[in-house]
Design goal:
- By secondary structure, the protein is an all-alpha fold.
- It contains 17 helices and no strands.
- α7 packs antiparallel against α16.
Length: about 425
């Protein structure tokens, strides 16, 4: 039993470290992922061959393997050498972590603490870069868009924890920690000026409201909703000037592109990219052009005067779905949809499943698990999110950590019922 406790303590430590270090610390997500992988491999005799109680885990395995195969096929077609295995290997290395976490589930308190601390560190990193380094946009150690979008996701997760999770003890301390995490995560997003993250709120907020309205007492929902609105209004007022300037600039860039075709702007190059990617996808709809083929064809289009040369500075189309369609065709698009929709279906809270165990413990985890793919769908409308290491790692490892925490709560509930 002591050995099992040690493994579960290691799993809980990973559940804290990954979200805590994922945004505010340089390469933090990689260090935490390596820690979890090493622990999972060391514990292989403990989980290898053991039955997987959560059947939905196999659905995630299928989605991960499908995407790994698509990335590897693209690498072979692009003749990228050893670099071609960089993407698919991540989808394979997360699998032992998944099976380890299902065998030794992390305690969800550690996960919530990691989420809140990660959001706080992201906000502090943003303040440091804007106030002390005088950077125009907070960007962390990744880039402004990735930093801002992941900060936003951690902030929203903190709000879920604040409004829905019932900690077994020290409720006041947890309320303070999660409140600060919510504020700092949203602040990090605002300081990054990542407009794509704000666009994703159109998808994220309705999902949060829908789930909370089904599982929360209406009076508590109203009070907590008012608090969240007050918090959001306060943060927006702090960054109102920057928000206004970014939105005005976006409108101007659209007008310039439509009237002159000039793509030398954030919005202009996106519009040019989207047109080119859509056209390329239609020309090779099944498998696409591959990464190398996409870049070669884009150069040809520029030389022929068909697209603006400014887009040659970028290796993706600034839209996850159009980018995949152009490079990997409909087959790649199917893999991307499976990667997003599978965890959404796995995590989506259902009253029947909630009634079977402790809904107060499991539903908040299910909601933050659903927020990850929903957020990625929104982020992907204006950014090739999975084209960045931070995007891929956060999606994969947060998904398996949340599923592991859910497994832990189900085990605890089953033990209590048995007693």
């Amino acid at each position: 039993m002591k050995g099992e406790q040690r493994w579960r303590l290691a799993a809980s430590a990973a559940a804290f470290l990954f979200p805590a270090l994922s945004v505010g610390v340089a390469n933090g997500y990689s260090m935490a992922a390596v820690f979890l992988l090493v622990v999972a491999l060391a514990a292989t005799p403990q989980w290898w061959g053991k039955p997987v109680e959560l059947r939905t885990a196999w659905q995630l395995v299928g989605a991960f393997l499908f995407m790994a195969a698509i990335w590897q096929l693209d690498g072979l077609r692009s003749d990228g050498g050893w670099r071609s295995v960089d993407k698919p290997v991540k989808f394979l290395l997360v699998l032992p972590c998944l099976f380890f976490l299902l065998r030794f589930p992390p305690r969800q308190a550690w996960l919530w603490a990691g989420i809140a601390c990660g959001a706080v560190l992201a906000g502090l990193r943003g303040v440091y870069e804007i106030v002390w380094l005088h950077l125009p946009r907070a960007e962390g150690s990744i880039n402004a868009i990735q930093f801002g979008d992941l900060s936003l996701l951690l902030g929203l997760m903190s709000i879920v924890g604040l409004m829905m999770w019932r900690p077994p003890q020290r409720k006041g301390l947890w309320a303070v920690l999660l409140s600060v995490g919510a504020a700092m995560g949203l602040l990090g997003s605002l300081l990054s000026q990542a407009r794509g993250g704000w666009l994703a709120l159109v998808l994220l907020v309705p999902v949060m409201v829908l789930v909370k309205s089904r599982f929360l007492d209406r009076r508590f929902l109203l009070i907590s909703g008012l608090i969240a609105m007050l918090l959001g209004a306060t943060l927006i007022s702090v960054a109102a000037r920057q928000l206004g300037e970014r939105l005005d600039r976006a409108r101007q860039e659209v007008e310039v592109y439509e009237t002159t075709g000039n793509a030398e702007s954030s919005v202009g190059q996106r519009l040019a990219h989207w047109k080119a990617a859509w056209r390329m996808g239609l020309e090779k709809p099944l498998l696409g052009w591959s990464q190398q083929g996409y870049e070669d064809e884009k150069k040809r289009m520029v030389e022929a005067g068909e697209v603006h040369p400014y887009i040659l500075q970028f290796t993706h189309a600034h839209n996850e779905f159009l980018d995949v369609f152009a490079k990997r065709g409909l087959l790649g698009l199917a893999a991307l949809l499976a990667l997003y929709l599978t965890p959404l279906l796995v995590f989506w809270p259902r009253k029947a499943s909630a009634a079977a165990s402790s809904s107060a413990a499991i539903v908040p985890l299910q909601l933050i698990g659903a927020l990850v793919p929903v957020g990625y769908i929104g982020f992907g409308l204006t950014q090739g999110f999975l084209g960045h290491n931070s995007g891929t790692m956060f999606l994969l490892f947060m998904t398996v950590l949340i599923l592991g925490a859910i497994q832990g709560e189900r085990k605890t509930a089953s033990v209590q019922i048995a007693r």
